[in-house]
Amino acid sequence: MENKNFGFGIVGAGMISHFHAKAISEIPNARLIGVHSMVSADDFAKQHNCTAYATLEEMLANPEIDIVCICTPSGVHMEPAVTSIEAGKHCLIEKPLEVTVERCDKILEAARKAGVKVGSIFPSRFYETSMRLKKTVDEKRFGDLVMGDAYVKWYRTEAYYKSGAWRGTWKYDGGGALMNQGIHSIDLLQWYMGPVESVQAVAANVWHKDIEVEDTIVSTVKFKNGALGTIECSTAVFPGSPKRIEIMGTKGTVVLEEENFVQWQFEEERDEDKEIRKSIQSGAVPHGGASNPGDISFVGHQKQIEDMMHIIETDGTPLIDGNEGRKSVEIITAIYESARSGKKVELPLK
To answer: By three-state DSSP, how is residue 15 classified?
Structure first.
């Protein structure tokens, strides 16, 4: 049986929408049909050979569109997502799913009622190293998990925050370094370590004084399995370092920088361990988006879009469905609440 051809629409024409368009163009049975944006999308449409629609409703009325990619500022994901869902379209929504748990839940409820699929974009999960690490955790090779840490120490200029009125605001950005930059690592950390029981945090504006939200934040984490961890995130650190995740247990340690392993050691050796260590070379770690938000690959987006297409055909559940996307938003919301109150915050949030 031939693969079904899927038509795509994109809402929003900012930087991240170009990654979606490029990813779609690399998939043989996918085609970008249209784009709608609150600002002019004509240049985007010309660049990516699709139609610019004046209204979202006009775009959604096109029966050739099966999946809509929501690429608007974070705090306005819900409205176009719910409108698209109610029009019977499946949705892939850029991270974060939304900026509050309540707005996430409205998207999930709309999808449940309409019977459509919703995915939350987290391309880092789709890299081979991320998948391998998850498989290794599931195989219990770490023994008892002891520590799970995430470090996102990046650099963003003053011009970055001034490049869009929504950046650095609670309403539209949902937070600062943690919600916008750190969320990818939060998603991976909880995927590996399991649910979070409590957090305690402190936040600051060390350099970017003119934004509403934090540019630096540190949180301790207690996981429900008894393990502990630390999350450190900043956009004030020059020149920026590769994002780093450390998973450590009673029988093993793995350290992941960007999409490369820099440490892989287990008490009970397997042949694959030696091969992985051979592939670890000093200085081979990509810089990622440490200093430039556009300095990332669209390959993860492509794999996630392909996953959604396959899931629609097989009526399965996306690797990162809306419920998975909600988890990182709840953890970050708890961390912000702790930073504001100075108190430990328990999850799930009441």
So the answer is: helix
The model carries a pTM of 0.94
Separation between Cα atoms, residue 55 and residue 105, nearest integer Å: 25
User: Are residues 11 and 37 in contact, defined by beta-carbon separation less than 8 angstroms?
Assistant: yes
Tokens of 185: 């690592």
Residue 229 parent element (H or E)? strand 228-234
DSSP 124: G
Dihedral of CA 323/328/329/330: which sign? Answer: positive
Question: How confident is the prediction along the chain (350 residues), in pLDDT tens digits per residue?
Answer: 457 999 999 999 999 999 999 999 999 999 999 999 998 899 999 999 999 999 999 999 999 999 999 999 999 999 999 999 999 999 999 999 999 999 999 999 999 999 999 999 999 999 999 999 999 999 999 999 999 999 999 999 999 999 999 999 999 999 999 999 999 999 999 999 999 999 999 999 999 999 999 999 999 999 999 999 999 999 999 999 999 999 999 999 999 999 999 999 999 999 999 999 988 854 444 555 655 555 568 999 999 999 999 999 999 999 999 999 999 999 999 999 999 999 999 999 98
Q: What's the rounded Cα separation, in Å, for the pair 254 and 242?
A: 16
d(CA 33, CA 29): 13
Q: From CA 143, how far away is CA 175, in angstroms rounded? A: 35
Q: 251-278 burial, b for 16+ CB within 10 Å, e for fewer?
A: ebbbbbbbbbbbbbebeeeeeebeebee
- Is residue 125 within 8 Å of 318, Cβ to Cβ? no
Do residues 93 and 104 lie in contact, with contact meaning Cβ atoms separated by under 8 Å?
no
Please confirm whether the linkage preceding 73 is cis (ω < 30° from 0).
no
Calpha distance 307→323 (Å, rounded): 16
